[in-house]
Amino acid sequence: MNKRKNLDRQKRKRQNLILALMLAVIALALLGRFLIGRDQELNPEELTPVTNSSESLPTTAPVATISIFPVHVAGAVKNPGVYYFPEGVIVSEAIARAGGPSEDAAVEVLNMASLLNPHAKLYVPTLAEAETGEIEFTFDNAGDNNTGTADGKINLNVATEADLLTVPGIGPATAAAILRYREENGKFTQLEDLMQVSGIKDKKFSSLEPYLYVP
How many whole angstroms from its chain centre is CA 148? Predict the structure, then answer.
């Protein structure tokens, strides 16, 4: 009897083992089919290429604009003419743009660090013209609106804030006071009228006098 029971037990073990093997084979077959199908779905040749988002999306960032204005560069330069410049350009850059100074140019009488005035005329005098001290050479915006002479002095009646700030001893507050006085009282009739401007007394006037003139 025990022998029969042992045989039945061994037979059931073999059947269970065969069943487990069959289930394993079926599971492997299903797994292989799933993996093959997944590879087909992810075939790189069939995928749609992804474009760069920065190229496809419209940009709403503001575009910076640069203000450009003409200036007539004339006189003792190699290539006189009308040139266009952005804001912030100074006299030395304008002269370089016009080919540089000619051999007889008196560039030492110019303020090479001055900012260009829009729609102005920058005249570079010759050495002979500079020696006469009669020619007005800096920026001419409209007729007699000249700000300097060949001796480097600034016309007090037409000087802008930028012109006044080039004078040693004149800062933003003093420049503003001079312009305010001129606006309220009209043109200066003599250079000594400068002492009527707030903050300018005898000592300061003496230091400013060599750089200014009243026509």
Answer: 30
